[in-house]
Design a protein that fits this description.
This protein is of the alpha+beta class. It has one helix and two strands.
């Protein structure tokens, strides 16, 4: 079976934002999110905090945010 010559083809770039919350002492992932790239990092961080608040005692944790890449600014 072949593709008809008049068939229109649409292409989309696969862009995603992948984010996780990790317990570095116990070496486990507590929360993970794969989201459309249009979602900003602050929204993802708030979703993680909302996700873990019922899993761990939030009064006994320290959260650190590391993006593993340099910040860039568009002019």
């Amino acid at each position: 079976m072949s593709v008809p010559p008049n068939n229109s083809v649409e292409t989309f770039a696969a862009n995603a934002r992948i984010s996780c919350t990790v317990d570095t002492k116990m070496d486990i992932v507590i929360s993970a999110i794969i989201e459309n790239q249009t979602v900003d990092e602050i929204t993802l961080a708030l979703r993680h905090l909302d996700d873990v608040k019922n899993k761990i005692n939030m009064n006994n944790i320290i959260t650190c945010y590391d993006r593993f890449y340099n910040s860039t600014k568009s002019c």
